[in-house]
Amino acid sequence: MDYTHTPDPRPQVTITEVGTRDGLQSEPEFIRTEVKAEIVDALVAAGLTHIEATSFVSPRAVPQLADAQAMLAQLRRRADAHIAALVPNARGAERALAARVDEMVCFVSASETHNQANLNAPVAVSLANVAEIADIARGRTPLRGAVACAFGCPFEGDVPVSAVLRIVDAYARLSVDRLTLGDTTGMATPPTVARLVAAIRDRFPALRIALHFHNTRGVGLANVMVGLDLGIREFESSLGGLGGCPFAPGATGNVCTEDLVYLLEESGFATGVDLDALIAVARRVEQVIGRPLPGQVMKAGPRLRKYSLDDARRAVG
Ligand code: ZN
């Protein structure tokens, strides 16, 4: 008998790490390509199997990610790690395919104003772009459809559920493999998460939903708990809580991956992630960007971390 592959009886949750894409895109200082690749390799080594590593948006719009192709080429690609990239249009999709991504992510904002600011196009034009991307992806790589500002827009306020459903409907007709509901500027709350997920499931019961929260107003993990209660098993987060959105005023980082792993594991779910190894990567990123990250568990350590009395005496001062 082979005892080395005993399946974990706990329910599995898939975390997609978006730190080097969503997190780094607004960093003003260019981070060297090999450092980005080193971070992604370390995340995979820590047990993260799904990484949205970079974006093929215009280098003028996001100079930090102008090295997408080179960065992907430097990764130590492993069969057990799915490397995804964000693609804004057909050209980006062709470049992503040439870089052998395991998944492409297209995106449209549920808010006209944010879509114009982010993609420089009306929603209808972006949906036509997505159809072109889907044509390119078909039979070659899985495609995930993301809805930005699904829970609210910094310019328009509340976003009607019908605006989200319009985009989800287009994605469903294009047979996207997975849907991400993005809370781009941290406006989601437990009731709005429950309402939107229910509305989408009502119309598209077979669609796999992932939730992407930002912790802008401190309720990111509360929203994750609502998703878990609803049976969602896929969440997106960034190490250390790195991030923001250059096209959305007041945006801050994603839900923090270490804090998410801690919450999930302590709540009886399996993530496959080595928390200590992940904390080490988050500390490395703090060095790289030269400032502290908002993650909590990276500062306090896991719950059963034991301090020496000497540590306690030092803390008094
Ligand atoms: Zn985001």
Structural overview:
- The chain has 317 residues and is of the alpha/beta class.
- The chain has a single domain (14-311), classed as TIM Barrel (Alpha-Beta Barrel), CATH 3.20.20.
- 41% of the residues lie in helices and 14% in strands.
- An eight-stranded parallel beta barrel has the order 1-2-3-4-5-6-7-8, surrounded by eight helices.
- Helix 2 crosses helix 3 (68-74) and helix 8 (190-203) runs parallel beside helix 9.
- The model has no long low-confidence stretch (mean pLDDT 93).
- Bound molecules: zinc ion.
What's the topology here?
Layout: E1 14-17, H1 19-23, H2 33-45, E2 50-55, H3 68-74, E3 82-86, H4 90-98, E4 103-109, H5 112-119, H6 123-137, E5 143-148, H7 161-173, E6 178-183, H8 190-203, E7 209-213, H9 220-229, E8 234-237, H10 257-266, H11 275-289, H12 297-300, H13 309-316
Parallel strand pairs: 1-2, 1-8, 2-3, 3-4, 4-5, 5-6, 6-7, 7-8
The structure holds zinc ion.
The site of zinc ion has 6 residues, from loops.
What are the salient characteristics of this protein?
317 residues, alpha/beta, TIM Barrel, 8-stranded parallel barrel, globular, binds zinc ion
Strand order of the largest sheet: 1-2-3-4-5-6-7-8
Strand content: 5-15%
Helix tally equals 13
Bound molecules: zinc ion
- Profile the largest sheet: 8 strands, parallel, barrel
DSSP strand count: 8
Uncertain spans, ≥5 residues at pLDDT below 50?
none
Question: Which fold name fills CATH's third level, the topology?
Answer: TIM Barrel
CATH architecture: Alpha-Beta Barrel
**Secondary structure: helix percent:** 40-55%
Rg (C-alpha, Å): 19 Å
Q: How would you name the CATH homologous superfamily?
A: Aldolase class I
